[in-house]
Design goal:
By secondary structure, this protein is α/β, with parallel strands linked by helices. It is about 40% helix and about 20% strand. The mean pLDDT is about 95. It binds 6-O-phosphono-beta-D-fructofuranose.
Length: about 350
């Protein structure tokens, strides 16, 4: 028999577009279909670990406004702090497992829905196991590095922003005959950079998963010039670690720009670091659809008695996988021999060796 009467929902890790859409979907499904109560937990697990508890009761009327259309998260979030060894102001560390469990009991939570990346889910599922609370995860990240699922909420919107930046950079690159470098986020994965490069018509794309040479970049730019091109667009992923000596404090995009400037071949490079705008703004339609489908499905599998699963989008359908499988795979990087890398090469883009 299904014992669930009241669930919590929280957002964890870096924010992105579409989080409010997921929260709304969870509340709608839980309230309309199952008559459950929903409690929004503030600032990820912090709302349950510290006193006073920070939470808000959520009903469908909370979404009569524009929440599903706006970025950020109405519940707040954090991407810092390890609840098993939390850094206290006095310099000591504290295991917050007990505080979390008590928080769940005080609020009468039977289950928790965690909207986060694979790292957040692993942490919260351990906390929930200690508290005897069921848990289901919903993947979100602009990095798109959560394994198995084909979509994580927030990626599509970030990609759109990056592509729009490429469109804006192209006109100024052409006007001033410059090489424009766009550095995008993605942590250690190159998904956002690769998608941006293809959608945004880049000439060069550098990502952590494919080794490149500096000479390879310069050769491509020289060839383009020989063929009459007077400007070029380069996309780089923030996650590339390599910097030459003396450049250690620069981001990868800044480093590449500095080297191209030193080359004195008239490449006239400039770098744009897009930064946190990639995480903001109204979710695009794909993110809204994925957010709604995953939100509804997360509630459904809880109702069916599942716990410690993450809902996924695969082949135009939703399903779920045990969190242990996600943990086994870890971060999902770009396949250097995959279809999109081949597509980029097929376009004549330089994407490494
Ligand atoms: O994981 C999402 C992300 O935006 C990464 O792409 C980026 O490296 C990181 O978070 C930035 O984190 P912060 O908001 O702490 O600067």
């Amino acid at each position: 028999m299904n014992q669930i009467r009241r669930i919590g929902v929280l957002t964890s890790g870096g924010d992105c577009a579409g989080l409010n859409t997921v929260i709304r979907a969870v509340v709608h499904r839980a309230v309309w279909t199952y008559k459950w109560e929903v409690i929004g937990i503030m600032d990820s697990t912090e709302g349950l670990c510290f006193r006073p508890l920070r939470f808000k009761r959520l009903g469908v009327s909370d979404f009569y406004g524009p929440y599903e259309r706006i970025g950020g998260t109405m519940l707040g979030t954090t991407n810092k702090g390890n609840p098993f060894a939390y850094a206290m102001p006095d310099g000591s560390t504290r295991d917050l497992t007990g505080d979390f469990g008590e928080g769940c009991r005080e609020l009468g939570l039977d289950a928790l829905i965690v909207i986060g990346g694979d790292g957040s889910m692993a942490i919260v599922s351990k906390l929930c196991a200690g508290a005897g609370v069921k848990m289901v995860g919903i993947p979100k990240t602009i990095d798109n590095d959560t394994p198995i699922t084909e979509h994580s909420v927030g990626f599509a919107t970030a990609r759109e922003k990056c592509m729009n930046a490429m469109d804006d950079l192209q006109t100024t690159a052409a006007s001033h005959h410059r090489v424009m470098i766009l550095e995008v986020m993605g942590r250690d994965a190159g998904h956002l950079a690769l998608h941006t490069a293809i959608a945004g018509g880049a000439d060069v794309c550098l990502i952590p998963e494919v080794p490149y040479t500096y000479d390879g970049v310069v050769t491509k730019l020289r060839r383009m010039r020989e063929q009459g091109a007077d400007h070029a667009l380069i996309v780089v992923a923030e996650g590339i670690k390599e910097r030459g000596p003396g450049y250690e404090k620069l981001t990868f995009g800044q480093y590449l720009c500095a080297r191209l400037k030193e080359e004195q071949e008239g490449f006239n490079p400039r770098v744009t670091i897009l930064g946190h705008v990639q995480r903001g703004g109204a979710p695009v339609a794909t993110d809204r659809i994925v957010a709604n489908a995953l939100g509804v499905h997360a509630v459904d599998i809880l109702a069916a008695g599942k716990t410690d699963h993450m809902v996924i989008w695969q082949s135009n359908n939703v399903s779920e996988v045990p969190l242990s499988e996600i943990a086994k795979i870890g971060t999902q990087n770009v396949d250097p021999h995959g279809m999109l890398v081949n597509t980029a090469r097929g376009l004549g883009m330089y994407i490494g060796e």
